[in-house]
Amino acid sequence: MRMFLDRMNRYDYAIQHGEAISYPFDSASNEAVQEGQISLTNYGLVDWILGEESAPDETLNATERTLLEAFLDSGGALFLSGTEVGWHLDDQGGDPDFYNARLRAGYTGDDAETYEVTPPSPPSGSIFEGLAPFRFDAPGMYDADYPDQITPLNGSVAALTYQGGGGGTAAVQYADGCERLVYFGFPFETILPDQRPAVMGRVLDFLDQCLTLPVNTKIVTPTYGSAHNTVPPFEGTAEAYSAMLQRVEVHIERASDGQYWEGSDWVTEMTWLTATGTTEWSYDLPQTLNDDDYSLRARAWAADEVDASPAAVVFTYDTVSPTSTSLIAPTGGITIPAGTVTLAWKPVEPDGGSDLAYVVALDGQPYTTTQPVYTVTSTAEGLHTWGVHVFDAAGNRSEWTTDTFYISWYDCYLPLVMRNFEGGGECTDVLVNGGFESGEGWVLNRLATYDTTRVYSGARSMRVGIPPGEPGDDVYSSVSQMVTLPAGSAATLHLWVYPISEGNDPDDLHYVWLSDQGEGHETLDLTTTDGWAWVEREYDLSAYLGQTVTIYIGAKNDGDDDTVALYVDDVTLEVCP
Question: For 376-417, what is each residue's pLDDT tens digit?
Fold first, then answer.
């Protein structure tokens, strides 16, 4: 048996409709509408896709017809397309009253025997007047055979006629105030791809007379949660789908006293100010800002419609440099034996501004950390100079505090006597690049990126997920590494994480997963926290000794604007003999 797969119905034709629709839209199954999960009365315009549904499966069942009737009675605009609708409802007696009175058509024939339609001649007010003839036998689509021949009834007029074949009316249109209808006797999705946008454009221009479309506003800068030591630009974009943008308004609130900027002074009453520009807009923040946290909001206006969900960000203005730290050890040119060297300094208390961190430099090589200690595992013999300066998220920096120490190597020779030796030794880290200081070892999956703004130690960490202030998306973001665990007595995965979860959304997740070569999966950790601090995690992987596994560390966003992100650093997988 030979099957022509490209001529079979794939049941995903909302795609062809959506690609031709210039407005934002929702999509749902007819079952969701029947069961009340989606209410048509929440929408001003509905595109109902029937394809080739026919009598055995019912083009429109009784519930759907009742819902569509109520939708039209409430002033809704309906675009309905598909073959066999007239044959089922009118000719076969499915519901002639609905077909004649609500779809305002009469059935005249089962097959127009053509795949080409054209505006009627003379036009008689057709919404497609002036549009060239077009076809509905697009390559790669199913065969829309048996397109219904119909006739206008109850105030409708012919919108399209079949060209060639048996002729006759192919589509009708109707308007009574906001109640509007366009009905095709053939499926819209089978129209040739390059002709669909023009056809859908004519349909929407006719149906959208009473449609209220959203106004959207975005703040581009400053970003949510950012910190600045100079006054940042306040800029963004706006768009309106159904009318020309009139203006963009902004308001600026100071966190310390809840007052609002009114253009020349701070006042207690919420004040909206007009920005410069519309599709791209800006507002000059006052140059006299005090060090504080500030809340910014922006909303666009188009005709009488305003963005019902203004864009919002919070930023910190911080011009105060952190105080310098004091070095604890090693200091004063002390001589210490070769080996691991721990550099320690006094932690600096937060100054009420933006978050603090440290740059520690050893012999001119800088490392960034949020902890008041840094460990160096290998240091050359001789004099070493080291120092620390403190910086904050706004970019303010303290003075350097420096000191020196010496490393001395001692040669030591010991006799070696072994009897009945059966092994032993130290635990070994089998991961590559656990500190993310190079580009080796890890596979970066969907939005994962190296980061230098939040690190536990060293110069870089790994960030997965979507940082606050960026648009949400339904996505899993992770970093992974495949590793072989040798035989041994114990295996321990250890890492530091910095979790962020806007609103503690329970549908957003931080996770640590493991998969083995047998495609088995184990969830090591599955949490939702908005900690904004480094936290230590540890997991026993002894059950996987002698196996090859893949470690995944990631964040799952559910698609709304409450985003989740995770910073990861100092990952080790130690196997002990």
Answer: 887 888 899 999 999 999 999 999 999 999 988 755 555 555
| Per-residue pLDDT tens digits for 450-471 | 999 999 999 999 999 999 988 8
Give pLDDT tens digits for 179-233. 999 999 999 999 999 999 999 999 999 998 887 777 889 999 999 999 999 999 9
Give me the domains of the chain, ranges plus CATH numbers: 5-210 (3.40.50.880), 215-317 (2.60.40.1220), 327-408 (2.60.40.10), 428-576 (2.60.120.260)
User: How would you class 137 by CB atoms within 10 Å of its CB: exposed for 0-12, middle for 13-18, buried for 19 or more?
Assistant: middle
Q: Residue 447 is which amino acid?
A: L
Shortest CA distance to 281 belongs to which of 304, 265, 297?
297
User: How many angstroms separate the CA atoms of 87 and 110, rounded?
Assistant: 6
Quick one: which H or E segment has residue 239?
Answer: strand 234-240
How far is it, in rounded angstroms, from Cα 404 to Cα 329? Answer: 10
Instruction: Please compute Rg for the chain using Cα positions.
Output: 34
According to DSSP, the β-strands at 77-82 and 179-184 are: parallel
pTM for the predicted model, two decimal places: 0.46
Query: Which helix (H) or strand (E) segment is 161 a member of?
Result: strand 157-162
Task: Report the pLDDT value the prediction gives residue 1, as an integer from 0 to 100.
Answer: 39
pLDDT band at 11 (very low <50, low <70, confident <90, very high): low
C-beta separation of 359 from 455 below 8 A: no
Cα–Cα distance measured from residue 382 to residue 361, given in angstroms and rounded to the nearest whole number: 17
* Measured distance CA(546)–CA(544) in Å, rounded: 6
DSSP 168-202: -EEEEEEEETTEEEEEESS-GGGS-TTTHHHHHHH
Q: Are the CB atoms for 330 and 345 separated by under 8 Å?
A: no
Collapsing DSSP to helix, strand or coil, 373 comes out as strand
Q: Give the SS3 label for residue 528.
A: coil
In the block, which residue shows the tokens 């590559």? 432
DSSP classification of residue 247: E
Backbone angles phi, psi at 42, to 5 degrees: -85, 0
d(CA 325, CA 398) in angstroms, rounded, equals 8
